[in-house]
Amino acid sequence: MLYGSIEAGGTKFVCAVGNEDLEILHRESFPTTVPAETMAKVIAFFKKFETELVGIGIGSFGPIDIHEESPTYGYITSTPKLAWQNYDFVGAMKKEFSVPVAWTTDVNAAAYGEYVFGHGKGLDSVVYYTIGTGVGGGAIQKGQFVEGFSHPEMGHMLIVPHEDDSYKGNCPFHGNCLEGMAAGPAIEKRLGKKGADVPESDPFWTIEADYIAQCVYNTTLMLSPDVIILGGGVMKQQHMVKKVHEAFTNLMKGYVKTPSLDEYIVTPALEDNAGTMGCLALARKVALSA
Amino acid sequence: MLYGSIEAGGTKFVCAVGNEDLEILHRESFPTTVPAETMAKVIAFFKKFETELVGIGIGSFGPIDIHEESPTYGYITSTPKLAWQNYDFVGAMKKEFSVPVAWTTDVNAAAYGEYVFGHGKGLDSVVYYTIGTGVGGGAIQKGQFVEGFSHPEMGHMLIVPHEDDSYKGNCPFHGNCLEGMAAGPAIEKRLGKKGADVPESDPFWTIEADYIAQCVYNTTLMLSPDVIILGGGVMKQQHMVKKVHEAFTNLMKGYVKTPSLDEYIVTPALEDNAGTMGCLALARKVALSA
After folding, report:
1. In this predicted model, what pLDDT tens digit does every residue of A148-161 receive, in sequence order?
2. Which of A28, A39, B193, B270 matches a 20 to 30 Å C-alpha distance to B201?
3. Does B187 share its domain with B245?
4. A114 lies in a domain?
């Protein structure tokens, strides 16, 4: 018995299969090009395991249609990646594999991985952010994704520009929203080099930490979760979590008594496996409830 | 068979009893002074109906302890109203009445009222804000309050100061957070008169609408609810909803396709009864599940 996982990101697709204990047995990545090409590789990957496959979990870049009663349920909808606009992802998988398919956003899948296996284990309410090429967020409360007319798009929340930051932001919609100011491309355009090449001593990291702390502050006030997990490339800078803690404390000014910051604002326990583990766990959930 | 409702606000307590159909039969208000005085009136009110009372729903000003396993569950905790700090509200009611008691924030109760009887009826995900003496928010998804380590404190989210507004904000914690810039006292301190006396033509309302729209924008991105209900004194200005719609459209710039704004950003269907109706519905829920 095997579970399948598809982490469908804007740059690459990571496919994996796991056993009953959700141990990852095989994993392969394919570049995200056009559906015909990328999906052929995805389907070929899972065809090798078809006889044992009992469920597939997909965490996809978005926006996506998550409403089961909608005629376009399972589609990627208005993505700027034109080749993937209105692509029937779940339908493509269901056509090839007669197993239940779980369908959510890539960041929700990572949140679910941490909820089941990582820093959210045993907690009621978990929020996960990825701060990298873009900024995305997902929230889970008592096993349910926080959602309504659609899935959240937390990365585009408003932030207050830092007084020492003259950058105007690069979000094509909102300019200086969180993603426009704090995602990897904004760092690179602002400083002329990638974040990974910006030394710890650069004063910019104080500005970046302030933006991330504003996000964590708003999340605390809006959702009051048990834990906020910060993933993605920017948070691989080891010094960032502490800077975010400091900036968060300065913003909150003691108004809300959160759990200890070392347990409340953390990086992913599963590191880069959160998405795959979340998709496997969702595959198991959908298979068991089918 | 009667259900009891206590809307415990910072200015007044509204007590009510309703029948099986949650029709309000009796209602009385008492000023919020000190617990000994106010609660004596609350208890005397319900004693008149004690033989028929089967459950009580309380929506209280906060912060409050909502964790059932906590030793201070049912307490008002670190409120600036010193006489009510660490007050065991649920304990005081349970001591006098041997019926199940539901316990949540005042704004969650109003959200629940709209969820069961108002603009949230039949929807999965509802957010309610009150914009008056303070700003508070509550969210419900599939019958559960959105919460984690505590209840939300949405009114203190960060907002970007409007370019035509030089007011520095009056939140004692955060200065120019949403409550510090947009609640009734901030309007009065800024303009030298109460919001109710500021004419529709005053350009300030465009600024106020921008702040409320920032709140609605962030809420849309964080929770993606089915409806956002705006209550409280400020929204009694009939012209405000339309101004908020316009400001929201300007902020969102088409990024997220929300439901039609006339159905998505609305004032309470229950008007000032949302809190009482919510408490009655919570009383019924807790009585039926006891």
Report:
1. 999 999 999 999 99
2. B270
3. yes
4. no
User: Does the pLDDT at position A217 exceed 90?
Assistant: yes
Three-state SS for A136? strand
| pLDDT tens figures, B214-227 | 999 999 999 999 99
Domain that holds residue B197: 121-267
Mean pLDDT (chain A) is 97
Q: Do B148 and A173 touch (CB under 8 A)?
A: no
Q: Could you report the per-residue pLDDT of A158-206, keeping only the tens digit for each? A: 999 999 999 999 999 999 999 999 999 999 999 999 999 999 999 999 9
Prior bond of A268 cis (ω within 30°): no
Q: Measured between alpha carbons, how far is residue A39 from residues A15, A79, A276, A287, B283 in Å?
A: 11, 17, 17, 22, 52
Flag whether B116 is in a domain.
Answer: no
Count of structural domains within chain B = 2
**Do A203 and A81 reside in the same domain of the chain?**
no
CB-CB neighbours of B203 under 10 Å: 7
User: Closest to B152 (Cβ–Cβ): which among A137, A222, A264?
Assistant: A222
Residues A132 and A236 in one domain: yes
CA distance B143 to B237: 30
B-chain residues near A142 (CB < 8 A): 144
pLDDT tens-digit profile of A56-95? 999 999 899 999 999 999 999 988 889 999 999 999 999 9
**Interchain pair A253, B173: CB under 8 A:** yes
Same domain? For A15 and A102 the reply is: yes
pLDDT above 90 (res B156)? yes
Closest-CA distance, B202 to chain A, in angstroms, reads 26
**In one letter, which amino acid is A169?**
G
Choose the closest CB to B124 out of A125, A148, A251: A148
- Kindly state whether residues B277 and B244 are assigned to the same domain: no
**Whether residues A55 and A79 fall in one domain:** yes
Two tokens at B228? 């956002």
Q: Which residues of B touch A125 (CB under 8 A)?
A: 147-149
- Phi/psi at A54 (nearest 5 deg)? -120, -5
B141, closest residue in chain A (CA to CA) = A146
Give the CATH number for residue B163. 3.30.420.40
Alpha-carbon distance of B104 to B106, in angstroms, equals 7
The set of residues, in sequence order, having a beta carbon less than 8 Å from that of B60 and lying 6+ positions away, is: B6, B8, B76, B89, B103, B104, B105, B106
User: Buried b / exposed e across B34-73, counting CB within 10 Å, b at 16+?
Assistant: ebeebbeebbebbeeeeeebbbbbbbbbbbbbbeeeeeee
Give the pLDDT score at B264.
Answer: 98
Looking at the partner chain, which of B151, B158, B256 has a beta carbon nearest the beta carbon of A224?
Answer: B151
- Contact call for residues B57 and B38 (beta carbons, < 8 A): no
Whether A69 and A141 share a structural domain: no
Within a domain: A116: no
Q: Which of B149, B154, B221 sits opposite A156 (nearest CB)?
A: B221
Q: What is the pLDDT of residue A53?
A: 98
Residues A284 and A255 in one domain: no
Q: Is residue B48 part of a domain?
A: yes
The band of B74, judged by pLDDT with boundaries at 50, 70 and 90, is: very high
ipTM: 0.96
Tell me the two tokens of residue A167: 């950058």
pLDDT category, A232, cuts 50, 70, 90?
Answer: very high
